[in-house]
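Hi R.,

As promised on Friday, here is the backbone we talked about, encoded as structure tokens. Could you run it through your design pipeline when you get a chance and send me back a sequence?
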């Protein structure tokens, strides 16, 4: 199985490496592996949905 680093996944999905790291830490990406301080993301994993609010309720 081939793996991507956080930086490579961020470039592939068009988001920052910090956001990818948060997805990994919060178990939002299936099959992710942590080796030391490095997250390894399976190559065929799709980008997780953004679960932040789209609009505010007043």
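Update: got your reply. Pasting your designed sequence below so it's all in one thread:
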């Amino acid at each position: 199985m081939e793996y991507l680093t956080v930086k490579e996944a961020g470039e592939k999905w068009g988001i920052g490496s910090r956001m990818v790291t948060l997805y990994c830490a919060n178990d939002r990406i299936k099959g992710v592996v942590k080796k030391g301080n490095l997250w390894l993301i399976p190559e065929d994993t799709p980008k997780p949905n953004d679960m932040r609010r789209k609009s505010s309720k007043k």
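One thing I noticed while checking it: The two ends are 47 Å apart (CA to CA).

Thanks again,
M.
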